[in-house]
Structures are given as structure tokens and as C-alpha cells.
Amino acid sequence: MCRFNHELYVGLDEAGRGSCIGPLVVAMVAIDEEGLSTLKIIGVKDSKKLTAKKRLELFPNIIMLSRYVAVRAIQPCEIDVNNINHLTMKAMHSLLMPLAKCSLIKRVIADYVSPAERLQRLMKGLLPPNVEVLILKDADATYPECMAASIVAKVVRDSELHKLQLRYGVRGSGYSSDPETLSWLKDALSQGWLPPCVRRSWRTIRKLSSTTSLDSWVE
Description:
The relative contact order is 0.20. The chain has two domains: about 10-165, Ribonuclease H-like superfamily/Ribonuclease H (Nucleotidyltransferase, domain 5), CATH 3.30.420; about 170-210, Ribonuclease hii. Domain 2 (Arc Repressor Mutant, subunit A, Orthogonal Bundle). The two termini are about 35 Å apart. It is α/β, with parallel strands linked by helices. Helix 1 (about 35-40) runs antiparallel to helix 2 and helix 2 packs across helix 6. The chain is globular. The chain has helices spanning about 35-40, 50-65, 75-80, 85-95, 115-125, 145-170, 180-190, 205-210; strands at about 10-15, 25-30, 70-75, 105-110, 130-135, 195, 215. The model is unreliable at about 215-219 (pLDDT under 50). About 40% of the residues lie in helices and about 20% in strands.
């Protein structure tokens, strides 16, 4: 439920963009000025600089301090047939829509998505003309509202990945740079199948599967 009685600072970020397994998760956090100060006190940082344990500790505090939190998970089947930047922009736009025309929004900051000018234009079209809208590289390392959004996105993605580990036996972080994930992908391909949690359009998957038939899918 939205609780609007103070000026709001809105942050948006994503997790799982470069992964070859599982969803891309986009999160939005809207918080007031007092909440921003408290985020700094409790140790909120860019999610990549925190351990999984620390992110889980911070997650309920972020939810409690925020006036509004929303998440969108984009599945591999969508990613495989669309431009991931466009999907990210669409998700951020849809997350922001419930706050459209809210006169209490002071600032909206999203971590960088290219082309930034397009995302900025989409967001400005939803908001009152006096709202500051910024699309910045490494916003999740500078602005507490984006740090909070990055933590929410990462915790939700980790939860989704855990479900995939239980259902399909996925190993590792889901990134091709992770030896455990790469080993699992090779094992799956050697058996001639890939579950729908794998992004088949990713270069790593295409390279690994170039000599393997993928007609058999697990649902």
C-alpha cells in the first residue's frame, strides 16, 4: 500500500542482467528523506558490495522504511526474443506508473540503461514537470534509494534462483563466469536438454550448444 505524506525519493535498479540463467529482476523503492538517512545508518550499500547474509538482513528494514516497493521479474522466454535494454526500460516504466502524477515525488533516479535519454523521456512523461529524473551510471553506488532498490532486486533474484536450484538442480550463481554454473550447463547439454530457466539466446549458451540438439525441454 502507498503511504504518501512526505516528499518521496524514488530509486530503480536491476539484478541479473548478465546472467545466463534465471530472471532479470527490476525493483523500485520510494522513500522519504528520513528514511534515506536511516538507510545510511543501517549500512545500505550497492548490493554487489554486500554479502548475501547482509542483504537478507537489510531487506526487511528496507521494506519497513519505504513508502512503496515494487518488483518486476523478466523471464528468459521474454529476454530471448527482446532487447534486454528495452525490457528493462519497460519494466522501470511500468513500476513507476502507480506513482504517476504524484505531487510528492521529489526525485527519481535509475541506474544506467541505454539509451538513457529514452528512459528519461519515458519517466518524465509520467511525472509532474518539476520532478528531477536522472539516469546515471553507478547510481546504486551513490544514492541510497538506488542502493535499496539494488538490494531488493538482488534478494528477489537470489530467491528465484534458489527455486531453480531446487527444481532443476542449477548450480552456482547463474553467471557463465561461475565455474559451477558453467559445469551445470555442460552437464545439461551433454544430456541433450535445457530447462526454460536458461537464456538460450546468450552467447555462452549458443557456443556450448552449437554441437548439441536442444529439442528436449523440461517444463
